[in-house]
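Researcher: Please generate the 3D structure of the following complex. Treat every line as part of one assembly.
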Amino acid sequence: MGCVCYVLSLVKRLFFHCGFILMILLAGCGRNERMDAVYAQRCLNCHGVSGRGDGTMAVSLPVAPPDFRQTVEKKGNSQIRRLIAEGKGLMPAFEPALSPSEINDMLQMVRFLSREGRQISWWEKFDTLVVAHCSIPWEAVLGYDEPAAEKKL
Amino acid sequence: MNTLRGLGYCRFGLAFLLNFASLASAANAPHLALKAVERREVKLPIDDFSLIDQDGKTFQFKNLRGKIVVVAFVYTTCPDVCPLITAALRQVQTHLSNQERKNSYLLTVTTDPEIDSPKVLTGYAKRYGAELSGWSFLTGDQATLKSVWKNFGVGVKRKARGLVDHTPLTAIVDRHGVLRFAYIGPSPDVKSVLGDMRFLMTAS
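Model: Done. Output below.
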Protein backbone atom coordinates (compact mmCIF):
# COMPACT_ATOMS: atom_id res chain seq x y z
CA MET A 1 0.00 0.00 0.00
CA GLY A 2 2.80 2.34 0.97
CA CYS A 3 4.57 1.54 -2.27
CA VAL A 4 1.48 2.41 -4.33
CA CYS A 5 1.10 5.72 -2.51
CA TYR A 6 4.74 6.54 -3.14
CA VAL A 7 4.40 5.82 -6.87
CA LEU A 8 1.21 7.86 -7.05
CA SER A 9 2.90 10.82 -5.37
CA LEU A 10 5.77 10.55 -7.84
CA VAL A 11 3.34 10.53 -10.78
CA LYS A 12 1.53 13.52 -9.29
CA ARG A 13 4.75 15.47 -8.92
CA LEU A 14 5.80 14.52 -12.43
CA PHE A 15 2.53 15.81 -13.86
CA PHE A 16 2.81 19.00 -11.80
CA HIS A 17 6.37 19.72 -12.95
CA CYS A 18 5.67 18.87 -16.58
CA GLY A 19 2.62 21.12 -16.59
CA PHE A 20 4.54 23.91 -14.93
CA ILE A 21 7.44 23.67 -17.34
CA LEU A 22 5.13 23.45 -20.34
CA MET A 23 3.24 26.51 -19.16
CA ILE A 24 6.43 28.55 -18.80
CA LEU A 25 7.77 27.34 -22.14
CA LEU A 26 4.58 28.31 -23.90
CA ALA A 27 4.51 31.68 -22.18
CA GLY A 28 8.12 32.32 -23.12
CA CYS A 29 7.94 31.25 -26.73
CA GLY A 30 6.29 34.21 -28.34
CA ARG A 31 6.69 37.93 -28.46
CA ASN A 32 4.18 39.54 -26.18
CA GLU A 33 3.04 42.97 -25.00
CA ARG A 34 5.05 42.72 -21.81
CA MET A 35 8.25 42.50 -23.84
CA ASP A 36 7.16 45.35 -26.07
CA ALA A 37 6.39 47.49 -23.03
CA VAL A 38 9.68 46.93 -21.24
CA TYR A 39 11.57 47.56 -24.49
CA ALA A 40 9.59 50.73 -25.15
CA GLN A 41 10.22 52.06 -21.67
CA ARG A 42 13.90 51.27 -21.34
CA CYS A 43 15.50 50.68 -24.76
CA LEU A 44 13.51 52.38 -27.49
CA ASN A 45 15.02 55.86 -27.20
CA CYS A 46 18.50 54.68 -28.16
CA HIS A 47 18.03 51.34 -29.92
CA GLY A 48 15.02 52.37 -32.00
CA VAL A 49 11.78 50.63 -32.89
CA SER A 50 13.52 47.94 -34.95
CA GLY A 51 16.65 47.63 -32.84
CA ARG A 52 18.83 49.13 -35.52
CA GLY A 53 20.40 51.72 -33.25
CA ASP A 54 18.37 54.55 -34.73
CA GLY A 55 16.37 55.74 -31.74
CA THR A 56 15.68 59.41 -31.26
CA MET A 57 18.49 59.74 -28.72
CA ALA A 58 21.01 57.91 -30.88
CA VAL A 59 22.19 61.01 -32.72
CA SER A 60 23.16 62.63 -29.42
CA LEU A 61 25.22 59.71 -28.20
CA PRO A 62 29.01 59.74 -28.53
CA VAL A 63 28.96 56.10 -29.67
CA ALA A 64 26.21 54.84 -31.97
CA PRO A 65 24.07 52.05 -30.48
CA PRO A 66 24.56 48.72 -32.24
CA ASP A 67 22.30 47.29 -34.91
CA PHE A 68 20.97 44.14 -33.25
CA ARG A 69 20.89 42.32 -36.59
CA GLN A 70 24.66 42.48 -36.78
CA THR A 71 25.72 42.03 -33.18
CA VAL A 72 23.23 39.89 -31.30
CA GLU A 73 23.74 36.69 -33.30
CA LYS A 74 27.34 36.49 -32.10
CA LYS A 75 26.42 36.79 -28.44
CA GLY A 76 25.15 34.16 -26.05
CA ASN A 77 22.10 34.64 -23.88
CA SER A 78 24.12 34.90 -20.70
CA GLN A 79 26.33 37.52 -22.34
CA ILE A 80 23.34 39.63 -23.37
CA ARG A 81 21.68 39.16 -20.00
CA ARG A 82 24.86 40.39 -18.30
CA LEU A 83 25.01 43.42 -20.60
CA ILE A 84 21.44 44.33 -19.71
CA ALA A 85 22.00 43.76 -16.00
CA GLU A 86 25.38 45.47 -15.67
CA GLY A 87 25.20 48.04 -18.45
CA LYS A 88 27.97 49.09 -20.79
CA GLY A 89 29.30 52.54 -21.58
CA LEU A 90 26.37 54.92 -21.52
CA MET A 91 23.84 52.11 -21.40
CA PRO A 92 22.33 51.87 -17.91
CA ALA A 93 22.68 48.83 -15.68
CA PHE A 94 19.14 47.57 -15.23
CA GLU A 95 19.88 45.41 -12.24
CA PRO A 96 18.55 45.70 -9.53
CA ALA A 97 15.82 47.98 -10.94
CA LEU A 98 14.39 45.26 -13.14
CA SER A 99 13.44 41.76 -12.03
CA PRO A 100 15.11 38.72 -13.65
CA SER A 101 11.91 38.06 -15.61
CA GLU A 102 11.90 41.63 -16.98
CA ILE A 103 15.53 41.23 -17.97
CA ASN A 104 14.57 38.00 -19.73
CA ASP A 105 11.80 39.89 -21.53
CA MET A 106 14.38 42.40 -22.72
CA LEU A 107 16.69 39.64 -23.82
CA GLN A 108 13.96 37.94 -25.84
CA MET A 109 12.96 41.24 -27.41
CA VAL A 110 16.55 41.86 -28.45
CA ARG A 111 16.62 38.39 -30.01
CA PHE A 112 13.36 38.98 -31.87
CA LEU A 113 14.55 42.29 -33.28
CA SER A 114 17.90 40.84 -34.28
CA ARG A 115 16.15 38.33 -36.56
CA GLU A 116 14.10 40.79 -38.55
CA GLY A 117 15.17 40.87 -42.17
CA ARG A 118 18.04 38.42 -41.94
CA GLN A 119 18.59 34.71 -42.42
CA ILE A 120 18.59 33.14 -39.00
CA SER A 121 21.03 30.44 -38.00
CA TRP A 122 19.61 27.03 -37.10
CA TRP A 123 20.52 27.28 -33.41
CA GLU A 124 18.69 30.57 -33.05
CA LYS A 125 15.41 28.72 -33.58
CA PHE A 126 15.88 27.30 -30.09
CA ASP A 127 16.71 30.59 -28.39
CA THR A 128 13.27 31.21 -26.98
CA LEU A 129 13.22 27.72 -25.51
CA VAL A 130 16.62 28.28 -23.93
CA VAL A 131 15.56 31.63 -22.50
CA ALA A 132 12.30 30.16 -21.22
CA HIS A 133 14.22 27.28 -19.68
CA CYS A 134 16.55 29.71 -17.95
CA SER A 135 13.56 31.70 -16.67
CA ILE A 136 12.30 28.80 -14.60
CA PRO A 137 13.24 29.11 -10.95
CA TRP A 138 14.49 25.54 -10.88
CA GLU A 139 15.53 25.63 -7.25
CA ALA A 140 12.02 26.60 -6.25
CA VAL A 141 10.37 24.10 -8.60
CA LEU A 142 12.49 21.19 -7.47
CA GLY A 143 12.49 22.26 -3.84
CA TYR A 144 16.23 22.76 -3.48
CA ASP A 145 15.87 25.98 -1.57
CA GLU A 146 13.32 24.81 0.94
CA PRO A 147 14.40 25.93 4.40
CA ALA A 148 15.60 23.18 6.64
CA ALA A 149 12.98 22.07 9.14
CA GLU A 150 13.54 23.55 12.55
CA LYS A 151 14.72 21.03 15.00
CA LYS A 152 12.61 20.75 18.09
CA LEU A 153 14.58 21.00 21.25
CA MET B 1 4.57 47.78 -32.65
CA ASN B 2 1.79 50.14 -31.70
CA THR B 3 2.69 49.57 -28.10
CA LEU B 4 6.25 50.53 -28.90
CA ARG B 5 5.16 53.69 -30.55
CA GLY B 6 2.72 54.52 -27.82
CA LEU B 7 4.80 53.87 -24.75
CA GLY B 8 7.87 55.36 -23.23
CA TYR B 9 7.69 58.81 -24.67
CA CYS B 10 6.96 60.83 -21.59
CA ARG B 11 10.11 61.86 -19.79
CA PHE B 12 11.26 64.85 -17.92
CA GLY B 13 8.07 66.79 -18.17
CA LEU B 14 8.16 68.54 -14.84
CA ALA B 15 8.46 72.25 -14.56
CA PHE B 16 11.69 73.70 -13.32
CA LEU B 17 10.46 75.52 -10.26
CA LEU B 18 13.08 78.08 -9.34
CA ASN B 19 11.66 80.98 -7.36
CA PHE B 20 13.16 83.64 -9.58
CA ALA B 21 11.86 82.40 -12.84
CA SER B 22 9.54 79.80 -14.19
CA LEU B 23 11.49 77.59 -16.52
CA ALA B 24 9.75 75.05 -18.63
CA SER B 25 11.75 71.87 -18.95
CA ALA B 26 11.62 69.71 -22.03
CA ALA B 27 8.32 67.91 -22.33
CA ASN B 28 8.83 64.71 -24.20
CA ALA B 29 11.86 62.49 -24.53
CA PRO B 30 12.01 62.19 -28.34
CA HIS B 31 12.30 65.93 -28.66
CA LEU B 32 14.95 66.17 -25.98
CA ALA B 33 17.54 64.70 -28.27
CA LEU B 34 17.04 67.52 -30.69
CA LYS B 35 16.36 70.31 -28.26
CA ALA B 36 19.23 72.57 -27.27
CA VAL B 37 20.16 72.88 -23.65
CA GLU B 38 18.84 75.96 -21.97
CA ARG B 39 21.39 77.99 -20.00
CA ARG B 40 20.22 80.41 -17.35
CA GLU B 41 22.14 82.85 -15.19
CA VAL B 42 20.62 82.86 -11.73
CA LYS B 43 21.36 83.73 -8.12
CA LEU B 44 19.86 81.18 -5.80
CA PRO B 45 21.41 80.44 -2.38
CA ILE B 46 21.68 76.72 -1.75
CA ASP B 47 21.12 75.48 1.78
CA ASP B 48 23.53 73.06 3.34
CA PHE B 49 22.57 69.40 3.09
CA SER B 50 23.91 66.07 4.19
CA LEU B 51 23.68 63.01 1.95
CA ILE B 52 25.42 59.64 1.53
CA ASP B 53 28.17 59.22 -1.06
CA GLN B 54 29.08 56.19 -3.18
CA ASP B 55 31.24 54.82 -0.36
CA GLY B 56 28.37 54.99 2.10
CA LYS B 57 29.95 57.92 3.93
CA THR B 58 28.16 61.08 5.00
CA PHE B 59 28.70 63.95 2.60
CA GLN B 60 28.26 67.52 3.83
CA PHE B 61 27.63 70.13 1.14
CA LYS B 62 29.00 72.98 3.28
CA ASN B 63 32.45 71.35 3.20
CA LEU B 64 32.67 72.44 -0.44
CA ARG B 65 32.49 76.15 0.40
CA GLY B 66 35.32 77.92 -1.37
CA LYS B 67 35.05 75.63 -4.38
CA ILE B 68 33.05 75.88 -7.59
CA VAL B 69 30.62 72.97 -7.54
CA VAL B 70 28.87 71.47 -10.53
CA VAL B 71 25.76 69.58 -9.44
CA ALA B 72 23.91 67.25 -11.80
CA PHE B 73 20.60 65.50 -11.08
CA VAL B 74 20.36 62.09 -12.67
CA TYR B 75 19.48 58.48 -11.88
CA THR B 76 21.44 55.43 -12.90
CA THR B 77 18.75 53.50 -14.79
CA CYS B 78 17.65 56.51 -16.82
CA PRO B 79 17.11 55.53 -20.45
CA ASP B 80 17.05 59.14 -21.63
CA VAL B 81 19.20 62.18 -21.00
CA CYS B 82 21.00 61.27 -17.76
CA PRO B 83 23.75 59.29 -19.52
CA LEU B 84 24.45 62.34 -21.67
CA ILE B 85 24.62 64.61 -18.64
CA THR B 86 27.03 62.29 -16.79
CA ALA B 87 29.16 61.85 -19.92
CA ALA B 88 29.33 65.65 -20.26
CA LEU B 89 30.43 65.95 -16.63
CA ARG B 90 33.15 63.39 -17.24
CA GLN B 91 34.32 65.51 -20.16
CA VAL B 92 34.34 68.56 -17.92
CA GLN B 93 36.44 66.70 -15.37
CA THR B 94 39.01 65.60 -17.94
CA HIS B 95 39.38 69.14 -19.27
CA LEU B 96 40.09 70.71 -15.88
CA SER B 97 43.71 71.53 -15.11
CA ASN B 98 45.26 70.36 -11.84
CA GLN B 99 44.85 73.81 -10.34
CA GLU B 100 41.24 74.02 -11.49
CA ARG B 101 40.54 70.60 -9.98
CA LYS B 102 41.70 71.88 -6.62
CA ASN B 103 39.22 74.74 -6.84
CA SER B 104 36.24 72.77 -8.06
CA TYR B 105 34.13 69.71 -7.35
CA LEU B 106 31.53 67.66 -9.20
CA LEU B 107 28.41 66.24 -7.62
CA THR B 108 25.89 63.83 -9.03
CA VAL B 109 22.71 63.69 -6.97
CA THR B 110 20.33 60.84 -7.63
CA THR B 111 16.66 61.38 -8.35
CA ASP B 112 15.89 57.73 -7.63
CA PRO B 113 17.05 56.72 -4.13
CA GLU B 114 14.90 53.59 -4.32
CA ILE B 115 17.40 52.04 -6.74
CA ASP B 116 20.51 54.15 -6.40
CA SER B 117 22.21 52.76 -3.34
CA PRO B 118 25.89 53.56 -2.69
CA LYS B 119 26.79 50.23 -4.32
CA VAL B 120 24.82 51.03 -7.47
CA LEU B 121 26.35 54.50 -7.59
CA THR B 122 29.85 53.03 -7.27
CA GLY B 123 29.21 50.85 -10.35
CA TYR B 124 27.79 53.85 -12.21
CA ALA B 125 30.80 56.03 -11.38
CA LYS B 126 33.14 53.27 -12.47
CA ARG B 127 31.38 52.83 -15.80
CA TYR B 128 31.85 56.50 -16.60
CA GLY B 129 35.47 56.52 -15.44
CA ALA B 130 34.78 59.23 -12.87
CA GLU B 131 37.79 60.30 -10.80
CA LEU B 132 36.32 60.14 -7.35
CA SER B 133 38.89 62.47 -5.80
CA GLY B 134 36.91 65.35 -7.27
CA TRP B 135 33.50 63.86 -7.90
CA SER B 136 30.94 62.37 -5.54
CA PHE B 137 27.76 60.47 -6.32
CA LEU B 138 25.12 61.13 -3.71
CA THR B 139 22.04 59.40 -2.46
CA GLY B 140 20.09 59.48 0.76
CA ASP B 141 16.69 59.10 2.27
CA GLN B 142 13.69 60.34 0.35
CA ALA B 143 12.94 63.23 2.74
CA THR B 144 16.45 64.69 2.65
CA LEU B 145 16.68 64.31 -1.09
CA LYS B 146 13.30 65.96 -1.53
CA SER B 147 14.50 69.08 0.23
CA VAL B 148 17.68 69.11 -1.89
CA TRP B 149 15.67 68.72 -5.11
CA LYS B 150 13.34 71.48 -3.97
CA ASN B 151 16.21 73.80 -3.10
CA PHE B 152 17.69 73.38 -6.58
CA GLY B 153 14.26 73.61 -8.21
CA VAL B 154 14.29 70.07 -9.51
CA GLY B 155 10.94 68.35 -9.97
CA VAL B 156 10.94 64.57 -9.50
CA LYS B 157 8.13 62.14 -10.16
CA ARG B 158 8.39 58.36 -9.91
CA LYS B 159 6.79 56.55 -12.86
CA ALA B 160 7.74 52.97 -12.10
CA ARG B 161 10.52 51.06 -10.43
CA GLY B 162 13.70 52.45 -11.94
CA LEU B 163 11.85 54.97 -14.07
CA VAL B 164 11.61 58.60 -12.96
CA ASP B 165 10.57 61.87 -14.53
CA HIS B 166 12.78 64.72 -13.41
CA THR B 167 14.11 68.09 -14.41
CA PRO B 168 17.39 67.46 -16.26
CA LEU B 169 19.36 70.08 -14.36
CA THR B 170 23.09 70.66 -14.27
CA ALA B 171 23.83 73.53 -11.90
CA ILE B 172 26.98 75.48 -11.18
CA VAL B 173 27.31 76.74 -7.63
CA ASP B 174 29.85 79.41 -6.76
CA ARG B 175 32.30 79.36 -3.87
CA HIS B 176 29.77 81.03 -1.56
CA GLY B 177 27.15 78.35 -2.11
CA VAL B 178 25.01 80.32 -4.54
CA LEU B 179 23.61 78.67 -7.66
CA ARG B 180 24.80 80.88 -10.52
CA PHE B 181 24.30 78.95 -13.76
CA ALA B 182 21.60 76.44 -14.56
CA TYR B 183 21.69 74.18 -17.61
CA ILE B 184 18.40 72.46 -18.29
CA GLY B 185 18.44 69.77 -20.92
CA PRO B 186 20.06 66.63 -22.19
CA SER B 187 23.73 67.41 -22.62
CA PRO B 188 25.22 70.62 -21.26
CA ASP B 189 27.87 72.05 -23.55
CA VAL B 190 31.24 71.13 -22.04
CA LYS B 191 32.98 74.29 -23.24
CA SER B 192 30.22 76.47 -21.86
CA VAL B 193 30.27 74.73 -18.47
CA LEU B 194 34.06 75.04 -18.31
CA GLY B 195 33.78 78.71 -19.27
CA ASP B 196 31.26 79.38 -16.50
CA MET B 197 33.37 77.48 -13.97
CA ARG B 198 36.48 79.43 -14.92
CA PHE B 199 34.57 82.69 -14.75
CA LEU B 200 33.44 81.87 -11.22
CA MET B 201 36.94 80.78 -10.22
CA THR B 202 38.39 84.13 -11.22
CA ALA B 203 35.50 86.14 -9.76
CA SER B 204 35.87 87.23 -6.14
